[in-house]
Amino acid sequence: MASEATTGRPAVLVARAVFSETIERLRAHFDVETNDADDEWSPDELIRRLQGKAGVLLTGTQRVDDALLRACPTLRIAANMTVGYNNFDVVAMDAHGVVGTNTPDVLTETTADFGFALLLAAARRVTESERYLRAGRWTRWSYDLFAGAEVHGTTLGILGMGRIGQAIARCGAHGFGMRVLYHNRHRLDAAIENDCRATWVDKDTLLRESDHLVLVLPYTPQNHHIIGAAELARMKPTAVLVNLARGGIVDDAALAQALRERRIAAAGLDVFEGEPHVHPGLLEVPNVVLTPHIASATVRTRRAMADLAADNLIAYLTKGRALTPVNHPAQRRG
Ligand code: DGY
């Protein structure tokens, strides 16, 4: 197996299949081991393949934790091709002097667009009505056929007001004439609030007043099931919930029950607890739009994400400076 010691060039692992252009970009600087078959390696297999590697490009599904870092003493950087980095144990990475990077900014607008795609599809019953049409059940027009919820001019709630939350707010306020409320741990600067035409409210007000509630907060243990049965009960019975963030933020079993009992009108979900497994209760109810974690999936954006992850490896391993680090270990492996 190639390693820096044997070839003089750092060795990196690309742990899932990515664009061939991204691999070529890496090959200009490193000895690169790839996973062209896109196999899902077990933690042990990942550790085995990381022996002698200085860097790894990940897609967010493999964990980088204390056990892996202990077993891979040459690893200096883990570059995620995602903005979310809940697969990183940042405390362990700091302790081992390993830098983690993510891919902010390049996916912001694309992901916000998809938030609106889910919101519109759920509110206007797009997939539900398409299934009806495809099943040959459409025989005539009628006044209330798939009558859904209004979007334009309604109240948009956003939980988690980072870059993507702000892009969704701008889209809602400027594109759909919506009143925008948000809740975030920290209130944003007045200039950003003005740009987004968004008003900070407490979480309870957000739940009670939103016609459409979009979740875009990072997954942390504190955010686990931040939307559960109690929160769903506080929402309007006409409300639409959109989860673009991470599985585990919503209690999917409680949501399936709320949708079944029409305690909220509809949901649009791109992420799931324990994905790719989807709670069977969600598969059974008609008033939910389900997509397989594709919010950032346009060809251009996925290319930009892969290239930024590669550029982080290149910048850190050739110049000692990552472009978009998520941590700053006091002592770095070198
Ligand atoms: C991200 O970048 O975090 C997206 O959810 C894709 O995993």
Number-wise, the strands total: 12
Query: What Rg is obtained from the alpha carbons, in whole angstroms?
Result: 22 Å
User: What is the SS-derived class?
Assistant: alpha/beta
| Low-confidence regions | none
**Overall residue-averaged pLDDT value:** 97
Helical segment tally?
A: 14
User: Tell me about the biggest sheet?
Assistant: 7 strands, parallel
Overall morphology:
elongated
Terminal CA distance? 20 Å
**Order of secondary-structure elements:** HEHEHEHEHEHHEHEHEHEHEHEHEH
Strand order of the largest sheet: 8-7-6-9-10-11-12
Ligands: (2R)-2,3-dihydroxypropanoic acid
Beta percentage is 5-15%
- Helicity, in percent? 25-40%
What brief labels describe this structure?
alpha/beta; 7-stranded parallel beta sheet
Short description:
With 334 residues, this protein is of the alpha/beta class. The protein is built from 14 helices and twelve strands.
